Amino acid sequence: MSTKTEHPSDGVSRNPMLIRRETGKMALTYVGGSVCASLVTIIDTLIAGVSIGSEALAAISVAAPLLMIAQILHCLLGYGIDKLMIRSIGEGKREEANRIFAAILAAVVVVFVVVYAALLLFERPLLQLILSDQSLTDTVIDYTWPLFLASPAIETFLCIERAFRVDGRARLFSARGIVTNIANIAFDVLLVTILGLGVNGLAWASVISTVIGYMVTLSHFFSKKRTVSPDFSVLSCKEELLSYVKRDIRLGSTATLDEVLSTVALSVQTAAIGLIGGTGGLAMWTVYKSLKGVAQSVGEGASASVSVHAGLLYGQEDYDGVRFCIKEGLAIAMVLSAVESVIVLIFAQQIASLYGVDSQYLVSCAVSLRIGCAAFIVVSTITVFNAYLSSVGKVDLANRLVMLEYGLIVVAVAVGYSMGLWGFLACYVVAIWIVTLVYAVVTIRDRYWFVPEQSPESIATYSIRLTPDQITALTTSIDSDLAAIGETASFASRVALVVEDSTCLTLRYNAEADVRMDLEIKRHEDGVCLLALDDGKPYNALAQIVQQSEDRLDMLEVSVVRAFTSNMSYNRALDINQSSLVVRRPAKA
Fold this sequence. Notes:
Mean pLDDT: 83
Number of helices: 17
Strand content: 5-15%
Oligomer: single chain
Distance between the termini: 44 Å
């Protein structure tokens, strides 16, 4: 992709290093935490297969569509909370972000309490409509009722964690996944293996460990790094509250549609697998879904970073940065899910044996896993694509692509049903690959990936690593770029002076740290606006220029800086400093 501005050989231009590094660092951290959280499902499946038996694996398969109701509601109400907040912060509206936080939390609590009260009352009649086996019905209920009971509290914790993403605490929230996983193993062993509580113990282990894990997240309330808090005064402003909830639902509509159709497709697939393969087929399906869940977690981890970084930069009209985010997120998701696919391909039989699959089904399960693992890379990729489309406001397009995805999956089920278990999975893999290719073609056909080439006010953008040589090259580029659009040499020198001193102060403040900086110069009615991003320690160098004592600059420089700068702002989000300053043209004599 070409940069916005061509500079002389001794100058600098925009490159993706800062955004790619920050997006990648957060994505990898979130992938680690997300995968660790998904291991809870894998461990439950392992314990169920080894310690309880094939009926437990079948019950988990039957319960899966019911448990996905929580994910559907989360997508409807909780999915957009971080995106709305980070976009408001990118636009300089932090108070609005706090009110969004509170409004969506309130909506989540009300909806989840009502829905899960109904599920607890009507689950048995619902199951009796689709299951003829009374024993399996009882097993499913034993497994699901503790999860239903805890869902409102767990969803509230999850929404709080999503809101806290804007503070860039990826390591803290990944630690939550690790703590949850360790606690889940301990309580699985205690409640299932030692106390023999069966699938009910399995469910309670998940609930207890998840709540313990979220205590790590809630510790951020007491952190000095916290910059957002729910402002519950919004509850007294009905129209404002509803407007935030409507925006949130609109933003989450793609993910909600995805989950609704996914639940329907999963129900159809599970029924078809049960008819094709019986108990052994359902056991295999449970193992496959838990492994596919890891690939899904990789995509969700990458998406978590893409969503907040792209949202922040979109709010700042940094469209090059938005494109850099999606490229980095896609690269990470594709590489990691490909690694998982290779592992499953090589060790499929050992994995099936580890899950406790009966020996009579072992070979069939291994072949099925080898066929199905070809879908892992595209499952994670689609997740990142959808997050990106929602972040840049292309919700309707994302909805159409999601409908295409599940339409093809239904066709795959219909075609594959008569082809046996392996043919069924092969049809699914082909369908999901076709969908991913459509996503790629539709996105790439838009030259700028659904965002403008650049902000209309943009004059030039630059990226540097903070070193004396790079700072010198930057000021040279600024002089030439401002001269190229007709600014006077004296005004260009003033702008270069502000930039040079601010970058030197940032370099000094960060000592030997490797700091990257992006700078954009935009047109402003009074002169030009400087927008700076850096990944150093919290510090506002542009404001420091105006406030510094005279011993830092000679008298002429002090008068220049103080007379011709205004409209300062500073913000820190996602571990990135964001500063802006208007450099005004001198009044004409």
